[in-house]
Amino acid sequence: MSRNYGIGSRDMAAAGRMIVARKFHGGYQSKYDIGQRWGYFSKWAAEQGVKKMENVTPEIVIEYGQQLQRELDAGERKSSSASKNYVSAVNTVLKLVIGDEWKTVRPGKDCGIQKRLYIPVESKAMTEATHQTAQRVVGDRISCLLGLQRAFGLRFKESCLLNPKQALKEAVKQGRITLKAGTKGGKRRCVPCRPGGITALENAVSVQNGRSMIPKNRLYGDFRRECYEQAKIAGISFHPERHAYAQERYAEITSAPSPVDAGWSRKERILHLSIYLKVSKEDAKIIDHDARLQISIELGHNRTGITNAYLG
Where in the chain are the domains? Predict the structure, then answer.
């Protein structure tokens, strides 16, 4: 039998769409949605080194669901129901292909996909002390990734695919870095080089041995898995560095702590900010909005609502 169970395409995403078109008993929109979600999974799986259906296991799908939950926690996905639908689409395709041989992966129980708390009451940022301790515990390369994520607010994948040598030249010359590889939706964005940014880039350059932070001749998926395993052993995760960036930037832009860092409730944050800055509530509201918009752009979101998850 040829690749992808002989469906008719060597491309896993295309093979999934083909089997849905042939065997799924549903309307056009349902078939389209399942095909699109399967395509998203196929792209993610390829990054992990899985490029044909025969190699897709329940463990791989569970890992995929856990990644969706991390994106949900980070505010990069709008609802837990949508994330569950993405996992369910994978189950649907594989059931159509191999029937009862496929062990269904449960989005909630197996992957831990749960509703997100949109406005946290406690800061999720990694403290400076924890950051420094983590950098001593993990290997040099992962230590540099943590430094880049904290200095520039990078997602894990963005920090892995960054070319530090190129970024360092740009930072020295223009006071910013341009992100291209690994960004959400492939959207290019510029991030200011703040105090500590040059040092983070120089440290990264010192361990770089390829075109990015991924070791030469290594696949992103394998490297990512290794990094997450080391982080788990060290008792940390990567995304809190992005939270730290957002909260530090809020303080830099507004000259006031972020609401979640200060312990201000969402409802009363503008009142507290006006008192802290000694300005009117109207001015405080504008200051808060402008800061959130700027931070959302730097994080690669471009909408202020997403900053609730970072700033409170």
Answer: 4-101, 128-239, 242-311
pLDDT at 261 over 90: no
One-character DSSP codes across 104-124: PPPTTTTT------SS-SS--
Per-residue pLDDT tens over the stretch 14-32:
989 999 998 888 888 888 9
Q: Does the reported pTM lie above 0.85?
A: no
**Residue type at 48 in one-letter notation:** Q
Phi first, then psi, for residue 56 (nearest 5°) are -80, 125
At the second CATH level, the architecture of 128-239 is: Orthogonal Bundle (1.10)
Look up tokens 């056009």; give the residue: 28
Q: What is the DSSP string of 233-277?
A: HHT--STHHHHHHHHHHHHHHHSS--HHHHT--TTTHHHHHHHHH
Q: Which residues contact 174 (CB under 8 A, 6 or more apart)?
A: none
Measured CA to CA, the distance from residue 83 to residue 86 in angstroms comes to: 5
Q: Give the span between the Cα atoms of 56 and 35, in whole angstroms.
A: 16
Non-local (6+) Cβ contacts of 62 within 8 A are 105, 110, 111
